[in-house]
Structure formats: C-alpha cells, structure tokens
C-alpha cells in the first residue's frame, strides 16, 4: 500500500509540471561524452584532456554541424565540501569553473555526471545543508539502505538513500544543483537510477530523486539538460518523461574490456531490439530515448565497419536520440567524421518525429511520418551476408512514392510504385526521404489471437498484465522443449506472406524460437523495457490457406512473456529470404553443451566444441528450394584464434580459421556452400583442437535476391 501511495503521489506531482522541463529539449542534443574513452584509458578524465577535447570539437568541423556538448562522465569528483556537496578532484580538475568557462568560450555547453543519494564520506561528515537547519544524516532514509543501483546491502551501503519526506532533503538537492550552476554546468546525467540500472523493482526507487533533481534545476534559474540513466524501467515513464529531458533505455554500448574495441555490432544491434518497446515514448513533449554513446569516429578502434557505423547513425537518428560521440576527438577518423556530419541524416535526428518499426526481424524497415506527405524510411540488413531488403509502399498506407532520395549518397532515385528493393551489404542501411503519391490505401483487415486463449503446455501459464490486451499475458515459457504456447487455429484466406505482429514483454534481451505448421524453427530476437507494457514487432511469415498453427517457446533459454499475436496481409512484402538455424537447437554431440548467452541470437549458444570428432554441432534439415551455391553465415565467438571444421552432406572437410576478442559477443564469417535441393546436413566441429562457441548459421541465396513467394 505504501508503494501505491508513493506512485500515486509522484504521478500527481508530475501532472502539475510542464511536459518538457527546463526549456532545453525541443530537439535532441548533439555533442561528446568522455566515458567511451575512459573505458580504454582510465586516466583520460582530466581537466587538461577536457580542454583538448573542447578545442578539438571546435576545430574538427563537428561544432558547425550542431555538436556542442562536452560531457564529463564519472570520475571527476574528489570529495565533498563543507555542505556535503561533491567537488572536483583537485589533482585532475584544479579549476573546474575555468574549464567550463573555456568550453563556453568555444561556443559549447558543459555537462557533468552525478548519482542519486549521498556517498559515505558526506554521511560520515554529517555536514550542514545549505538553505536548511538540517544536516546530512537528518535526511537519510531509515533504516539506512542503498540510495542508487551502485549501493551495497545492509546499513552501510556507501551510497545512502534520501528520504524526501524529511525537511532539508529538497534543500540538499537544491544546493548541489546550485553549486553545479555556479560553475556554469549546462547538462546533468543522473546515473544508477532505479527502477532500472539492473534493479527493476522498487527496493531502491529513485523516482522521488528524479523529481527533486528536476525541481532543483528549475530553482537554479539555469537551463540544464537532464538525462536519467540507465536501462530505465518503462513502467515508470510518467516520471522519466515529465521530469527529465531524456532517459537511457539501454545499458552501456561500450565493451568495457569484454572485447578489444570500444564497441561492436552486437551491442549496436541491441538498440534495435529494445527500441520498439519505447518508440511511442519520445517526442518534443515527451523527451527523448537515449541510446548511449555513438562510437563512430575512431576508425578501427570503434569495432564497427563503415556500413555498421552508418547503420548505427541511422537508427540513432531515426529514433531522434541524442547524438553524442565517444573516443578521442583529437584523433578523429575522416570516414567516421563524414558519417557524423551528414547534414541530411542529422536533419532526421532533429525532425521531432521519432520512427516506428514497420518490419522487424532480419530485414528491418523503420518509418518516420513527417505529417506533410513525406516520410523518412530506413531499411536495414541485420545479417552478415548481402541481402535484398524491401518495403511495399502500401505497408506505409501510400500507393507509391513521387520522390525517393537516398540521404547517405545524396542521390535522387526517382519515383517508385508498388515496392522499393535495395541490395544491402552486411549490417548495412539505406536511408530514404520519400514523398508520397496522392491517394489512399486502406489498411488490411487483421485478426488478433490472445496468448491466454491459446494452448499452453508445460510451465506456461497465464498472468495478469495491466497493459496487455485482455488484461492477461502468458509467461513461464522456454527453458525446455515442452514449455510452449500454441495458436492452433490461425486462419487466413489464401497462401502467401503475412505479417505477424508479436506483442511481447521483457526487461532486456530475450528470444523466441517459433514454428509455423511444424516447420523449422524461426528466431525472434526481442528486447524491451517492461513486463507490463507490451512491445510490438511485425515479422513476415508464410501461411497457407485455411488453418495454421504457430508455436512459441525456447528450448534452451528465456523467451519474453507473450500478450498476443496479430495477423494481417503482407501487402506485397516478399517471403523471408534467409533461414536461421540456432546452434543450441541443433544436434549436439559429445561434450558440446548449450546455455544462456545474452548477446547471442536465441539468447543462447553452443560451447565445448572440438577436441574430438564427436564433439560437434550437427544442423539437420537445412532446407533450400533448389540445388546450387548458397551463402552460409556462421556466427561464432572466441577470444583468440580457433578453427572450425565443416562438412556438408558428408562431403570433404573444410577448415575455417577464425579469430575474435570475446566469448561474450558473436562475430560472423560468411562462406559459400553447395547445397542440394531439399534437406541438407551441415556439421561444425574440430576433431583435433578447440573450436569457438557457436551461435547460429544463416542460409541465404548467393545473389542476395529476395524469394518472391512462399515454399
């Protein structure tokens, strides 16, 4: 009951505030953050280096394209003043006001990092609070407990919770923000905020902290952008969107020592998986979805190809996310700089019209409706083999395109009717500005199938769900072949390609393995920010006329909870042109085991491969429509060189020498293989040495051309 009263009280407070606070967030900001480089060089965060970064931002040309923020992340603080307020480390930041004055003189804005609660040294000092007759210990919650996600257990958590019902609590926040304002701070990142930050219940609960910080910013009289971080729980977005300008919807994009580079493609791809859950929550009156640092200007150090960097820039821009670069601005890569300063793409980010995902899965389409007959349309190839990605204009509700412009190549592509197709390399994108043809296209009829009304097996069961259709959902799926939900009477009028909208619920990454009419497994890798508010993605599937069965589960790992599926016509969308085979769902021989792995397709991988002929992964029933040469993508993980030995249909063994820097994140190798019409068997192992861990294989036509019909 006390939690309910608190939630209602905070909502009431929110309703009296302006929709977007501080008058600084009409559009997402552009700038730079120190944190990415700090993950590579712990000694990087110094006043001397920040002066260099400010000068480099001004000299690089980035500032002329709108990049203006220089944000200091964690590590600037060295102690507390006589009133318990954080102050800089005098060794690394001898004069923070002089630094910020320099940033301002360069025409830039200065950002700073802090956390909710009070740290141990200030608690022990029990300093008097400015503007109050209280002391620090007077405002702490009793019994003492963690004040943010970094806090420890028990009475001595180091980070102490503030009780905002106590006199002096708001005054303390006011005094901290006033100190920042006296230095000239223009941006505050409040980190370790819960619910979120891997603490997704109300055991810590920083909602009142966020309100107090926001009120303190307003009282300071200085406009400051206010971001709350990280991986926030969407259930409480009424607080985040009302009292802050942006909320981090993901965890850190950086590898932070878990790979050899700043980031990598799996960590970029995670944003594609989490964003559908939040795509309705951003805009000029709602604040912005923060996807974290955009590491695209550091050459090979970023861990991304140029196509992957363009894809990252595209999804950040389509989301209207803040664009803040990482790395060292004194060592900018020219190709990355060109990507970051494409003004036509930057206009997408600044449009004030965040995109929605139109088609999910391997070949994604995202659309932003500008409301004046124009659309931004982004197409993505999420796989490592070249593929044709398509968008039928009728899916947008328009009969065709009078004008199509490619914003990355700055080329006019001319008018287009029916469907737009583009052949994209690995993890690549095309970003279009589309002007619609006159005329209307009626939305096709759709039919919803509630999960709670489907056939449940094993541990699957119905749970209440406030935000779900019908007020219920199905959980307890996965972690066994029998724990499934089956829609046994999915009825369509004709054979063809349909869109299956999957309304699912999860915090973080989870994955379904689903089967249509007892055919092969398909994978839907999803993410989300709530177990009470569904996230929707639409996947192309082939159905036959009459009754079909679709079954959801995950033999090895964790799927999301399921609200419902909705089936509607594909409106000319081609049939899926790739087939995915998960290693954990294959036949595992000898010592090979399958288990959870966060960034992997299916949320699992196969490990302990090699060291004997029997210790292999066998993919049976790899099915293709005709004999020929196909592209085979092998997604694996290794730290250092390892080899896989591959045989196809019992033929000659082929050794693949592979390398990588992490067992945490998969990388891809694409090879050509000859397959026979119908079923094939692909075996991956290593008889004489250790093999890498194996995520999946992906089979597609060699040309990358789409399959225009269903089998």
What does this protein look like?
With 711 residues, the protein is of the alpha+beta class. The chain is built from twelve helices and 43 strands. An eight-stranded parallel beta sheet has the order 11-10-9-8-5-2-1-12. Strands 13, 14, 15, 17, 18, 19 and 21 form a seven-stranded antiparallel beta sheet that branches. Strand 14 and strand 15 (374-381) form a beta hairpin. The longest helix is centred in the first third of the chain and has 15 residues, at 169-183. The N and C termini lie far apart (56 Å). Residues 1-19 have low confidence and may be disordered.
The count of strands amounts to 43
Low-confidence residue ranges: 1-19
Largest sheet: 8 strands, parallel
- Structural class, by secondary structure, is alpha+beta
Mean pLDDT: 94
Per DSSP, the total helix count is 12
Q: Cα distance, first to last residue?
A: 56 Å
Helix residue percentage: 10-25%
Give the neighbour order of strands across the main sheet.
11-10-9-8-5-2-1-12
Q: How large is the radius of gyration?
A: 26 Å
Coarse morphology: globular
- Measured by DSSP, the beta-strand proportion falls in 35-45%
